[in-house]
Amino acid sequence: xxxxxxxxxxxxxxxxxxxxxxxxxxxxxxxxxxxxxxxxxxxxxxxxxxxxxxxxxxxxxxxxxxxxxxxxxxxxxxxxxxxxxxxxxxxxxxxxxxxxxxxxxxxxxxxxxxxxxxxxxxxxxxxxxxxxxxxxxxxxxxxxxxxxxxxxxxxxxxxxxxxxxxxxxxxxxxxxxxxxxxxxxxxxxxxxxxxxxxxxxxxxxxxxxxxxxxxxxxxxxxxxxxxxxxxxxxxxxxxxxxxxxxxxxxxxxxx
Amino acid sequence: xxxxxxxxxxxxxxxxxxxxxxxxxxxxxxxxxxxxxxxxxxxxxxxxxxxxxxxxxxxxxxxxxxxxxxxxxxxxxxxxxxxxxxxxxxxxxxxxxxxxxxxxxxxxxxxxxxxxxxxxxxxxxxxxxxxxxxxxxxxxxxxxxxxxxxxxxxxxxxxxxxxxxxxxxxxxxxxxxxxxxxxxxxxxxxxxxxxxxxxxxxxxxxxxxxxxxxxxxxxxxxxxxxxxxxxxxxxxxxxxxxxxxxxxxxxxxxxxxxxxxxx
Lengths: 255, 263
Prior knowledge:
The complex is a heterodimer. By secondary structure, chain A is mostly helical. Helix content of chain A is 73%, strand content 0%. The longest helix of chain A is centred in the first third of the chain and has 29 residues, at 19-47. The radius of gyration of chain A is 19 Å and the shape is globular. The two termini of chain A are 19 Å apart. By secondary structure, chain B is mostly helical. Chain B has one domain. Chain B contains 12 helices and 2 strands. In chain B, helix 2 (24-51) crosses helix 6 (105-135) and helix 3 runs antiparallel to helix 11. Chains A and B meet through helix 2 and helix 10 of A and helix 2 and helix 9 of B.
């Protein structure tokens, strides 16, 4: 744990080495997020309420999504790169270190642009989420559960590269879950809706946590924690098993 | 364009298209991503139409579905981060080697990118027809759909030219990477990729209609949604001429400033 924290501190120092570039990227991502907020406001201005969702509920969903995505893609940036690193044989440097490989890999690199998501998500919740101590607590808990899920899912799909030799599955897994999580699952019906709660659990990334903030329910909270834990463990297990099949590519610097 | 220029441009397009077809993993990724995204966004708009009494800004559920199928195809077929790639090549000085060719840097890059996009565009169009037919059934107007085919090709040409014009900023500011975020959002909203321009408030609709981004997503979407408005193709052609002029001027001025270190 101490080694992981030291690595995270080093990654933060690296990201902060050029403050001008750091803030440029953070601000660019925040502006990017503002455009999404604009889209939702324009959409609901035209459409009114859609299947129980209005602009305030969707902004809360978006706050949870950007905060958790910022945490994972910003502070644990390598979670999205596991497939590429595994397929290209880019984990050699990692394996030579006397630290748990997965923890070190996850905290080794910070993606500055996605830190902008984290900042934006927190700000959006504080401005539009009606923060009270109870709502803030559920928001933080929901974001943490969503972050475990958002780490575990691309880790699991990316680690398939250890077995199949191609890294695209990780990228596709991440893109899919982020894309689907950005929309209320209630717009779907039938099989697509079932998929969002099971195989690609995008509904649990933002929709379920944001609903819990508005309408706390112990059973829903337990379901969220269960799904997050299940995908967290699945990601860890797939990576650990896959690492036994890893073949060096003599690439020392990418991890 | 002289005969020789047309010839190397066509060769560049053909070579890049063959290369894109050979990269089956990348092509499959693009088509799968397109399928996922259109299933999501068309479902959103159909739900909106259902809640709004059948129509949104004059579009019914069928028209909205075909609109999104076309507007998304026009953008998903392109490399979304091309501004970043071109900007990196400029900032690193790699573009200097391209200046040694007896052909325009911008022209060669445009030929390669159009060639790379065409197979993806054709694939997205095929997937879109399947998604449209299985979710809402027949296209609102066969004539509109036919017009949307050239509109899609013109849309990617306009988009690629505008991305090169944006990326040319790297000749002066060195790091144009973060601008792709902003450019992308301009296409998403003011270009009409995520929503028809008619759904925007009046003043914003006016602004968006006067900007080149509408040529990149709105026009093919509008045509595919059953609005047989052939004059929109002329608007696209006009924007292509303007954007080509801006990109060519920016590259010509920028190439005189390139400084490369090492080889």
